[in-house]
Amino acid sequence: MEIEEVHKNTKLMYSGKPWNVDNAEFVKPGKGRAIYRLRLKNLLDGSVLDITFHSGEKVDEASIANLEMQYLYKESDHYVFMNILNFEQTFVTEAQLGDKIKFLKEGTLVNVQLLDERPIDITIPTFVELVVVETGSSIKTATVTAQNKSAKLETGYSVDVPTFIKEGDLLKIDTRTGNYVERLSTKK
Amino acid sequence: MPAEPERLAKIKTNLKRRARIYDLVREFFRGRGFLEVETPVRVPVVAPEINIVPVESDEWYLITSPEMHMKRLVAAGYPRIFQISRCFRKGERGRLHNPEFSLLEWYCAGANCMDMISDTEQLVMTLAKKLRLGSVINYQGTSIDLRLPWPRLSVSQAFLKSAGWDPVENYDATHFDHDMATLVLPQLAPGRPTVLIEYPAAAASLARLNPGDKQVAERAEVFIGGLELANAYSELTDREEQQKRFAAEIEQIEHQQGRKMKMPESFIEAVGFMPECGGIALGMERLAMLMCDAGSIDDVTAFTADNL
To answer: How close, in Å, is residue A142 to chain B by CA atoms?
Structure first.
């Protein structure tokens, strides 16, 4: 592909390795040739590389398959996902999942990006629905009423919630920010 | 709040100031006897420039600059003209670029490139004063002393200091552009505007060569706070020389990029009738960024290419 088409999160092959473009900076003197400064992150080991390209140069796009998969369960230090079309299973490491672990419960549908059948990245839904498993009552003092308290969700993730939230409530969580959005239902 | 109203609410102060800048720019030039003109945005031929790719429009092009039509006006007896024009350059998108943007250009018969730089100094100082920013402005965490005159630095001096070679002695287009962007510009003194002068003859573009030293072109550029603000020429008025430069550029563009560009015949003809003349192009978004302390063109543009 042309360097002009590369933008943030494009996946490239460079010196035989797959990279994600973490940042792409376009620098161009008015009459001069454009320069593309890329910060690349290795998709396999997470190492970072800064590199400069000029307009007119070509790069190899990594051929990434994007499959819809269901998260099944955790097995030792691997997370098992299943291709919902052919039931084939794929293992993803904890390091590859990063913060997304906090929002994954069994049965969740996600997009798994595969490079040569190796999983390299997971895209989880923007919003997930999780049940509160533990939350205290808000602490009141003589002068201050707390507006928020902490609640532990079924994945083990703790989030700030309004004081009216109870154990058993189903909450909507924004996975981009990790924040509570709203209560979807409450346990009667 | 949905994303778009929130985004536009955030930049409202900047967009209002941008509108005020447009008013002040027009007031500045009218007060100096310049006529505001309008020239076409969609044209059959653009100036061939290897590093500027035009957007095609139904076999014609959208202008990359209003330069050629404005010079045709100068050649026809309009000695002092200015214009704020929408321009289009394919693929130019980044923190300082949007493929559609506004250029302020003005041309003045009898002037040279340094006169155009003086105009720019006056314009920027006038704006800073009328916007009540004072003569020392804050831009992205750096104090910039705008007081006149702005320091002049030759391209040779700048390159010898920051890149270790002299492009006037030994020109190489690829290294010139690369070192300019990565070594020279980042090392300009941050607390003052810089006027780069005496560009290598090979980077003259549409500027005339210095009659006393044919190795350098009468081209000057203004940089403030890391922003390339304006590019000035003592305009080339030699028709044959202009035709020769364009023919070489057209050949190079086809050879290197496979793009076929045409010779702008009507413009070439007009060059022969042009009086001695200074011309300059100034990026309005860059000016607005500077005056709004905005780090990105997105902060002074309501709708960039990313949110059409």
So the answer is: 35
| pLDDT at residue A142 tops 50 | no
Model confidence over B58-88: pLDDT tens digits?
A: 999 999 999 999 999 999 999 999 999 999 9
Cα A115 to Cα A42: distance, rounded to the nearest angstrom: 13
- Fold that domain A3-61 belongs to in CATH: SH3 type barrels. (2.30.30)
Contact B180 A34 (CB under 8 A): no
Q: Which of A26, A30, A54 sits opposite B228 (nearest CB)?
A: A30
Please report the domains of chain B, with CATH numbers, ordered by start residue.
3-151+189-307 (3.30.930.10)
Name the pLDDT band for B148 (thresholds 50, 70, 90).
very high
Residue range B152-185, pLDDT digits in tens:
999 999 999 999 999 999 999 889 999 999 999 9
User: Under CATH, which architecture does the A64-123 domain have?
Assistant: Beta Barrel (2.40)
- How far apart CA A105 and CA A37 sit, in angstroms, is 38
List the domain boundaries for chain A: 3-61, 64-123, 127-185
Which CATH topology does A127-185 take? OB fold (Dihydrolipoamide Acetyltransferase, E2P) (2.40.50)
* Chain A residues with beta carbon closer than 8 angstroms to that of B257: 56
Chain A neighbors of B95, CB-CB under 8 A: 25-26
Q: A118 falls in which pLDDT band (50, 70, 90)?
A: confident
Among B96, B181, B221, the residue with its CB nearest the CB of A35 is: B181
Q: How much is the pTM?
A: 0.80
**Fold equal for A3-61 and A127-185:** no
Report A:15-34 residues touching B (Cβ under 8 A): 25-34
Contact A29 B177 (CB under 8 A): yes
